[in-house]
Amino acid sequence: MNEKLREKFRNKETAFGLWVTSESSAVTEVAGMLGIDWICIDMEHGYIDYKAISGHLTAARGTDLTVLVRPPSHDLEPIKRALDLGAHGVILPLVDTASEVQAAYDHFYYPPIGRRGIGGERSVKWGLGLEEYVRSANDELLFIPMIETKNSYANLDQILDVPGIEAVFLGPGDMSASMGYVGQWEGPGVAEVNLDILSRAGVRGIAGGIVARSTEEAILRREQGFSMVSLGSDMGLMIRQIKDMAAALGQETVGHRWF
């Protein structure tokens, strides 16, 4: 679990990923076939449910793909249930303080670190692999807080000092909104904030992740030293390709998507 992704962290390589917003497990199946390093299934926005997550995880079987879930909240239920379905970790949204990270740890880790309950669901092969999973889960699962508010930036050092954090993920859009620039991807000063977060995390050996909205931006983020770069979302990539092809064919399309 997460072996390929952690190897890239150790080797200072960029791991490219995909934000999954569709319930179609074919998205994950194709991502695995293409050799994508990781995906994040997004429950915070949209309509993906636990059944859809199960389908995505099934589609990732037999690959080196890391399958992360972004839960809709810090609460026990979405974190516990995503892990019980077999998710390889979580990307926790809208973290403001180190105490919030510690509270979410309780739901994420088995004792003695947390108080995650032991069940007989998919993650433990319906009980057939329970001992093996329980023995290794605390070491193998990835807990990745998002730094995407001005409060989390103000409390960055305390968050980064929480034991067990191997990576943080940046949210430029929400960071911009929290700084008064709602609707902008990187409002005034946010680009500098992002690089400062990346630098301060790197000093502690913590990887940084971010979403790119174009090939050019993905190259830039790799050059800046981000360890996890999302190439976009499933729907966003489809829209981007259609718009590019339509423009080349002289056809007009409407609308704009962030990523």
Blueprint of the fold:
Layout: H1 3-10, E1 15-20, H2 26-34, E2 38-42, H3 50-59, E3 66-70, H4 76-84, E4 89-92, H5 98-108, H6 130-140, E5 142-147, H7 150-154, H8 156-160, E6 167-170, H9 172-178, H10 190-203, E7 207-211, H11 215-224, E8 228-233, H12 234-248
Parallel strand pairs: 1-2, 1-8, 2-3, 3-4, 4-5, 5-6, 6-7, 7-8
Helix pairs in contact: 4-5
- Write down the overall mean pLDDT: 95
CATH topology title: TIM Barrel
* Biggest β-sheet strands, sense, barrel: 8 strands, parallel, barrel
Which second-level CATH architecture applies? Alpha-Beta Barrel
Helices, by number, come to 12
Oligomeric state of the chains in view = single chain
Percent of residues in beta strands: 15-25%
End-to-end CA span: 27 Å
What string, H for helix and E for strand, traces the elements in order?
A: HEHEHEHEHHEHHEHHEHEH
Strand order of the largest sheet: 1-2-3-4-5-6-7-8
Derived structural class: alpha/beta
Outline type: globular
Rg measurement, Å = 18 Å
